[in-house]
Amino acid sequence: MPVRPTSHFDWQVLRTVKRSKKPPVGRTLRLVPNRKTKDGSFLTELVEDGLLERLTGDATAPFDATYALTEKGKFAAEYGEYEYQMRPKAPVPTAPAPKERKAR
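RESULT FIELD:
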């Protein structure tokens, strides 16, 4: 499996979850208030990558949900990288061949 490094921000979020004694709420994981963290999509991406899991709540309200690390997330919090599954590429649709013109 290929290895992907975590971004510095994602690594900080994972370390925060690792250090907390109780499962943190998504609102406390917004460490830097900027455009990327405004809607909570960074939490959804971490869950989709398999680094975090939701203990309570759902994807519609990421700041109200509580989170815990997965095994992959614990490794990424410690070493800053994790293994990921490559997704197969979607087939590219081919354009139909142009029609030949008839000679006059």
